[in-house]
Design brief:
By secondary structure, the protein is mostly helical. Helix content is 83%, strand content 0%.
Length: 203
């Protein structure tokens, strides 16, 4: 951790706080803090990175959008869902506006928002978001892409919470078929889906 702090201090001293290398060093420190479980400190750094990106690069710059997504993830990791959700929503809106609704980053942003809705038990919002993310991912990335397979399983999880077991089974059966076809029968994700399907069938 100290080397990240020293790197940031060195960049600030040599290049100033607004230089791209300084902001990148702060982002690296924020990431290291998050991985180390120091979420309060990480969030403070992520907030600073986002403010610096917005000020120096503008709200629509790709680095600014990444900074916002990172802050949302840090909020979610800390259980601060009321703060995470609007940041995820803003990230999705920015992705759609700047990169288009079919860009892979936009698909990921929609799935991330759906996941945060689910964790917050906002299932009436999570399920439509997952369905939209799944449809877009299938159309743009194909049925065998990890993004598509993951989103299908996450939608099944949301349906399980609200008791729609027949939908859970149908989604996991399709997910298992696709996992076996595209990833192979012994892939870790294939094995996980198989176990989850067996459990759902027995429920």
């Amino acid at each position: 951790m100290e080397r990240y702090k020293r790197a940031l201090a060195d960049q600030e001293r040599m290049r100033g706080r607004d230089h791209p290398d300084t902001i990148a060093a702060r982002a690296a420190l924020a990431s290291a803090l998050r991985v180390a479980g120091k979420l309060k400190d990480a969030i403070g750094q992520y907030q600073r990175v986002l403010a610096d990106r917005e000020r120096t690069s503008g709200p629509d710059h790709p680095d600014t959008i990444v900074a916002r997504a990172n802050l949302a993830f840090a909020y979610r990791s800390a259980g601060r869902l009321r703060e995470a959700i609007p940041v995820y929503e803003r990230t999705l809106a920015d992705r759609e506006r700047v990169q288009g609704r079919d860009h892979r980053d936009t698909l990921t942003a929609r799935a991330n928002l759906a996941g945060c809705y689910q964790v917050a038990r906002r299932l009436p919002e999570a399920i439509p978001a997952y369905k939209r993310a799944l449809a877009d991912s299938e159309r743009m990335l194909g049925p065998g892409d990890i993004e598509t397979l993951t989103t299908r399983c996450n939608l099944a999880s949301a349906y399980y919470i609200v008791g729609r077991l027949s939908d859970v089974v149908a989604l996991l059966q399709r997910a298992l078929t696709d996992c076996e076809r595209y990833l192979g029968p012994d892939h870790p994700m294939t094995r996980t889906v198989r176990v989850n399907l067996d459990a759902a069938v027995r429920t």
